[in-house]
Amino acid sequence: MREAYHEELASLSDGLVEMARLVGSAIGRATTALLDADLQVAEGVISADVQVDDLQRDLEERAIALLARQQPVATDLRTVVTSLRMSADLERCGDLARHVAQLARLRYPGHAVPGDLHRTVLEMGQLAQRLMAQAVEVLVTRDVEAALQLEQDDDRMDELHRMIFRHLMDGRWQHGVETAVDVTLVGRYYERFADHAVSVARRMVFLVTGEHADEYTADTPFAP
Amino acid sequence: MREAYHEELASLSDGLVEMARLVGSAIGRATTALLDADLQVAEGVISADVQVDDLQRDLEERAIALLARQQPVATDLRTVVTSLRMSADLERCGDLARHVAQLARLRYPGHAVPGDLHRTVLEMGQLAQRLMAQAVEVLVTRDVEAALQLEQDDDRMDELHRMIFRHLMDGRWQHGVETAVDVTLVGRYYERFADHAVSVARRMVFLVTGEHADEYTADTPFAP
What we know:
Helix content of chain A: over 70%
Number of strands of chain A: 0
Oligomer: homodimer
Strand content of chain A: under 5%
Low-confidence stretches of chain A: none
Structural class of chain A: mainly alpha
CATH superfamily of chain A: Phosphate transport system protein phou homolog 2, domain 2
Largest interface: A-B, 36 and 36 residues
Shape of chain A: elongated
């Protein structure tokens, strides 16, 4: 009984790691689709998102079954509840990667992102993928230091997001309103993706230390 | 023991109702702040959001305590887990109302929304508030018909969101890039607010009937 119990707990963690790997890969490929205007890659990201949704539903069912059968308390109970929360973060990351790919598809064969923002958006995409890789590490190791590091690395995402806003609003924008709308949404998708990766890390800090990493809501809607 | 148990379950539901009422009021006031460029109202919405965050944290703690002490199974267990999910939806609605108010504050004493979109944004704001009022009703009555109605009413939000995109992209936009960016974000905030209200209703349908109201993810990032 005890053995099955720990296996079930471990399998929740495995499910989270699998989700995080999938959405990390998805945001990387979505960035490629966006910057290269690659329709095939975009379609791949869009159709793959259902796997993430299925994994989440499966994880939720297993968490509820575990609560019902094993009735965990203390740390184990918090682990299960935290898993539910993390899986919601990761499911949302899958949606956001899909949105980036959907934008690439919508503008194909054109490019949604103009050349002068290519480098900034590439850095956002790579950073988002790297933050998710760090989240995977945190899920596997439960390392609080690594989790806190994620938060610091996310500062760069906010900076990149501000750079996009400044570029949009400095009065020299030459790419028209449609592209301004596209770039606004793209910036928001990457920033929210990063916020959810940070959220996974913060939940781990709380689980391990019992202390909130800081106040929640990294979401900064507007650049100062 | 049993009586305390049912009181605790009921108090989770009360907490959700309180959160839903607060965020419904917040989105209404945020819309006023946005359309009237009313700084005082905006500040009120922004500073009140912490109440919603506190309620969510409190609800989460009480849910975990209930799971540990009472070890509910079957429907009661699903009710507790669903409450956790609903509280995350409602907490996010509070953030989104705050974002609308923050935009009003950022552009004060100017108006973030130009006159020709005033009516559309007003309707989005009113609809968002109404959807949340319906969600409150669903939380109180557990009425599946009312929950399904919410989904239909949300179609109008998607339509309004598409109207904004069409207006932005019809080539006659006269308000510059900054305002285009503002309006893009505002449209997204209202749409996401509505999605979370619908999500609360769907979770209730699942809780009551055991069937998913439909596939999830009402989130439609781009207008066709």
